[in-house]
Amino acid sequence: MILREPFGAAEVRFWRIDSERHGADWESGEGAFRVGGRWNSPGKHVVYTSLDPATAILEVAVHKGFQVLDTQPHVLTSSRIIDPRAVHIVRPEDVPNPNWLRPGRSNSNQQRFGDELLKVHGFVAIPSVVSPYSWNLIFDPANAAGCYDCVEQERFALDPRLQT
Length: 164
Hints:
Elements: E1 12-19, H1 30-35, E2 47-50, H2 53-64, H3 66-71, E3 74-81, E4 87-89, H4 108-120, E5 123-127, E6 135-139, H5 141-144, E7 148-156
Parallel strand pairs: 4-5
Antiparallel strand pairs: 1-3, 2-6, 3-7, 5-6
């Protein structure tokens, strides 16, 4: 598998989909704080985003399903990283256990690996598990405050053909 580098010469934007009721606090990291995530332990605020909107859709759909995205209001948020040099890129060979990049439950070692990355780096780009040729971007909202701008949010509408 060849994973392309996540950045070209242009600006770096990230994308996220939230239920409409949580749209205003998209950058809180509260969900990850409460239950943990693939790359963070419970008790750590982390925001999970993707480097393109299609991957953001898949990342939400794998957890909620397309039916929920089609029938409940959601918002799509996008933002720009001010200084792309603040992004640390984790390539597949940098991950201690290649199975961490495959579908399945995360474990505490994987979460600690992510916790350590986020202690050192403002933003971490890491391969997506649901779309292995795509990238996710995670960040601790407290450490990344002031490092992104141009936040845009719009109502998300799933293509209804994904339900047929």
